[in-house]
From TrEMBL:
Chain intervals for the UniProt region annotation (Disordered): 49-81
Family, as annotated: Belongs to the CDC123 family.
Protein name: Translation initiation factor eIF2 assembly protein
One Gene Ontology term of the molecular function aspect: metal ion binding
PANTHER family: CELL DIVISION CYCLE PROTEIN 123 HOMOLOG (PTHR15323:SF6), D123 PROTEIN (PTHR15323)
GO CC terms in record: cytoplasm
Lineage: Eukaryota, Metazoa, Chordata, Craniata, Vertebrata
Keyword field: ATP-binding, Chaperone, Cytoplasm, Magnesium, Metal-binding, Nucleotide-binding
Organism of origin: Salarias fasciatus
Domain of life (superkingdom): Eukaryota
Amino acid sequence: MKKEQVVNCQFSVWYPIFKKHTIKSLILPLPQNVIDYLLDDGTLVVSGSDHNTQQTNTNNSDSEAEEDVQTPSIPPTQSVFPPRQAPEFPEFTSKVLEAINSLGGRVFPKLNWSAPRDANWIALNSSLESRSLSDIFLLFKSSDFITHDLTQPFLQCSDQDSPDPVINYELVLRKWSELIPGGEFRCFVKENKLIAISQRDYTQYYQHILKQEEQIRQAIGDFFSQHVQYNFLDEDFVFDVYRDSLGRVWLIDLNPFGEVTDSLLFTWDELTSGGDVAQRQDGPAFRYTTSEVTVQPSPCLSYRIPRDFVDLSTGEDAYKLIDFLKLKKSQQEESEEEEEEEEEEAPQ
């Protein structure tokens, strides 16, 4: 895997090529001060001033009540944590909110390559669905995948002696779509030939995959030959697709052909050695979980103890607990407000 291949798999590189065959998305340049904030271990969240403009402000009595909740009752003789100013990005916040609203108010966020899939556990709804900049920041600052994008994008490249290409980091906002995990598949392409397909969510057993194996293989093969093959910048790459309930196939992501990309139910030795997988003449190898007996724990479980919580458990940074509780309370209030608005709008 070369550095050039990693560069070519950036979202802003492949999206214009396959725009008609993927989910509507918007790309915003990521300012340096935002990048610095994402890499700063000292703060967990930003202030709540980035809430969607469609939401209403709370009154003074609510603010006073919130202060009562957030400020511990401590005798005057004891010191308390001095208030810490959360970073503000007014211009960037405005652009993000405008983009979110133009995409329907709910988005799936990612950077040039990665989405914070290892951090969905920290969100209020255990989802990557984001409605505000604070939602996005919470996910990004809790994600090792995002940190990798920002600090080591060329870590496993074979041409380490060559200078690293300059990367212009970007925030990608994708229109939120309810994708059923059983419809996602990862496809491996070598020398512009589709050699392997793997169930994306291999930790679960989906009966419909077993029943529709040939239809799925055929649909993905047709999509590849009609829309992807020879259209990408490299001849070796990995692409993710989604097959919907009508049998239509949509492009979800593109990744480098190398160990930086999860090979799922295959091994990279199989995919690169020229063995049975790479030399099949009767179509791509297709692997999926065949029974509930083979169900496995999610690989993202290993990411669920972030550095921030380690700091809390050791008493190294109590500020992070305050920041975290403020954000969780804010998210809960947003959810309650949305439920109230939906009840008011419902027909009587």
